[in-house]
Amino acid sequence: MRARLTLEGGDCVPSSLDLSPTGQPVTLGRSRDNTIVLRDELASRLHAKIYFEDGRWHVRDFGLNGTRVDGQRVNGSIELADGQRVRIGEVVLKIVLEPKTPPRPVKDAPATMPVNAKTEGPHNATKVHEIPPERQAPGDPPPEQAAKQLRVDELTALCKFMTGAVEAKTPHDLTTFALRAILNQTAAKLAGYLSLDPEDPGPKIVMPESAAIDVPLSRRLTVQAQAQGKTIWLFPELSASHPPTDSLSAFADAICIPLKASGEPFATLHVYRSGRAFSERDVRFIEAVAGFLAHGLEILRTRRTLEAENSRLRTHTPAADDIIGGSNAVILLRQQILRAAPQPFTVLVQGESGSGKELVALALHRNSRRTEGPLVVVNCAAIAPTLLEAELFGYKKGAFSGADRDHPGLFQQADEGTLFLDEVGELSLECQAKLLRVIEGKAFRPVGATGDMKVDVRIVAATHRDLDKDAKSGRFRQDLLFRLKVIQIRVPPLREHPEDIPELAAFFLAKVSSECRRNFKLTAAAMRKLQAHTWPGNVRQLRAAIESAAVMSESDTLDADALPLTGVTELQTPVAVPAVSVDLPPSLDIVEIEKWAICRAMRQTGGNVSHAAKLLNMSRDTLHNKLKKLKEEGIDRAMLTNTPAPLGVPEPVSTDA
Ligand SMILES: Nc1ncnc2c1ncn2[C@@H]1O[C@H](COP(=O)(O)OP(=O)(O)OP(=O)(O)O)[C@@H](O)[C@H]1O
């Protein structure tokens, strides 16, 4: 004997349920695990059970606050008769035995699971009510098929929606496009989007727009869909279960779908219709649109975040104006950058370590026609020579052990933009040959690939080495050098423009002040000390000295002794030309100065590479590579740390070694 439970008072989900004698017992309670979830404070988590036994329906009470049938408290269990009302707290459910319009049995379709079981359709919907056969639209295929297949016109509409949806630029456009597609394809009267995120700029969108003011989207359905995380498909007997004030009372059927992509639902999609119930196909169509909408909205949001991040980074990429200094040397440098930037040619930036070569490369990109394209920076000295080729040109999955997927090389990543090859002088001869081919406009082949590829990349290279000298000694390819130095820019070392020290110091001081939320100042003595120093580490060393003094100082006023500069001959008055510091190596050959600095740092730190790298203001990898090269020249680590003056490396003059 079939039966039906219908809500008459209070709140529960679902609000009506068909019972089958062969189905599972129906449980009632506050917990979401129950077949009927009671929204009532007085209900226990599992409060009662309705079950079929000996040809009759019964109710068994488990609740603390009791269950009543037509006013009588249930002790243990009692049999239910037609028309009786089961009351738990404020919830009143009427039982009707053998309802007059029994649901039409549908074979195989999960939407017609034993009707008193928790129903989850193929689309994972909680179906509250079967669609009576007389509500099928004329011309619909039999329910068996209807439940399973979208028709050609629906699939066409879906494809049309998807094709158009990828063009949508904003979440609002995409949402209205989806709502319109639903209204056009189904017989829905109203479709709405309701955000669950309080910070969503478009919290509610209703189509047609004329209905937006008059029809609120059901809060009850929203809560239900959000809590259950799946489609709620309601065909309520509205007059019975909804007060006339309820927003759904004007409709015959309603669907509410939680929109979620990778996490919790962030919105719900409401679709209401009048006259008759939605068909199974309607629900499937709406679910397909909802799924696409949810993912589309997430993609648009991610894109927005990336665009904001990108524009933030662009604003932080320096232009020529961000190169500080009013000296003739820096004015000339800025002019050269502005002249070179728009040209399509390769630029070779030369200068000592820390003098600002990377800053120049960034400014070249920022002022070029490729500014909208990517800027990819690679430090050729920091990548092991064996890996460099794969890094630059990419590799295919399986090209070598550890290559578990295709990897686009830096050239590919920089397509239509700029590739900045820092420390280009450190490239192996083999890599130089490959680089030459790409610069000559020829194709390259990723490691392990069978085909060649071409990219449109402008190369800006930088080096602190004397590449002409290296080319003469055969260490660097002459033909590559010619290609690289179509435009040459020399970045002057700081000792050639000491008049910029006060401005640079003020700039770095302002930066560190804003980072530390303090207001640092330099005393006159401190400024004199800065101006008297010869800065072998150039602007980078100046910056590091100021930052280190600031963060280590308890006071906002930084005096000379706060500056971590040793062996400086302090002069009485600031000078235009710097004094020679006693800790300078005798030779001014930049390669020799670097060797001397490495030797000194290694000795000072007792051979600790990490500490030495910190002192030298370079990465550990860079120092390792440089140590390796020194070793190739016959200067090993022991010699560096123990010998006073290894192989032509000048002995530091100061006494702290
Ligand atoms: N004229 C300048 N104005 C402002 N900041 C500068 C200037 N020159 C250099 N700097 C700063 O000094 C630091 C070192 O600069 P950069 O990294 O460009 O030097 P580099 O010559 O590329 O060094 P390396 O050869 O070691 O890579 C950076 O923090 C940079 O912002």
UniProtKB/TrEMBL annotation:
<protein>
    <submittedName>
        <fullName>Response regulator of zinc sigma-54-dependent two-component system</fullName>
    </submittedName>
</protein>
<keyword id="KW-0804">Transcription</keyword>
<dbReference type="InterPro" id="IPR025662">
    <property type="entry name" value="Sigma_54_int_dom_ATP-bd_1"/>
</dbReference>
<keyword id="KW-0547">Nucleotide-binding</keyword>
<dbReference type="InterPro" id="IPR008984">
    <property type="entry name" value="SMAD_FHA_dom_sf"/>
</dbReference>
<dbReference type="InterPro" id="IPR003593">
    <property type="entry name" value="AAA+_ATPase"/>
</dbReference>
<keyword id="KW-0067">ATP-binding</keyword>
<dbReference type="InterPro" id="IPR003018">
    <property type="entry name" value="GAF"/>
</dbReference>
<dbReference type="GO" id="GO:0043565">
    <property type="term" value="F:sequence-specific DNA binding"/>
</dbReference>
<dbReference type="GO" id="GO:0005524">
    <property type="term" value="F:ATP binding"/>
</dbReference>
<dbReference type="Pfam" id="PF13185">
    <property type="entry name" value="GAF_2"/>
</dbReference>
<dbReference type="GO" id="GO:0006355">
    <property type="term" value="P:regulation of DNA-templated transcription"/>
</dbReference>
<keyword id="KW-0805">Transcription regulation</keyword>
<dbReference type="Pfam" id="PF00498">
    <property type="entry name" value="FHA"/>
</dbReference>
<dbReference type="InterPro" id="IPR002078">
    <property type="entry name" value="Sigma_54_int"/>
</dbReference>
<dbReference type="InterPro" id="IPR000253">
    <property type="entry name" value="FHA_dom"/>
</dbReference>
<dbReference type="InterPro" id="IPR058031">
    <property type="entry name" value="AAA_lid_NorR"/>
</dbReference>
<dbReference type="InterPro" id="IPR002197">
    <property type="entry name" value="HTH_Fis"/>
</dbReference>
<dbReference type="InterPro" id="IPR025944">
    <property type="entry name" value="Sigma_54_int_dom_CS"/>
</dbReference>
<keyword id="KW-0238">DNA-binding</keyword>
<dbReference type="Pfam" id="PF00158">
    <property type="entry name" value="Sigma54_activat"/>
</dbReference>
<dbReference type="InterPro" id="IPR009057">
    <property type="entry name" value="Homeodomain-like_sf"/>
</dbReference>
<dbReference type="Pfam" id="PF25601">
    <property type="entry name" value="AAA_lid_14"/>
</dbReference>
<dbReference type="InterPro" id="IPR029016">
    <property type="entry name" value="GAF-like_dom_sf"/>
</dbReference>
<dbReference type="Pfam" id="PF02954">
    <property type="entry name" value="HTH_8"/>
</dbReference>
<feature type="domain" description="Sigma-54 factor interaction">
    <location>
        <begin position="323"/>
        <end position="551"/>
    </location>
</feature>
<feature type="region of interest" description="Disordered">
    <location>
        <begin position="103"/>
        <end position="145"/>
    </location>
</feature>
<dbReference type="InterPro" id="IPR027417">
    <property type="entry name" value="P-loop_NTPase"/>
</dbReference>
<dbReference type="InterPro" id="IPR025943">
    <property type="entry name" value="Sigma_54_int_dom_ATP-bd_2"/>
</dbReference>
<feature type="domain" description="FHA">
    <location>
        <begin position="26"/>
        <end position="74"/>
    </location>
</feature>
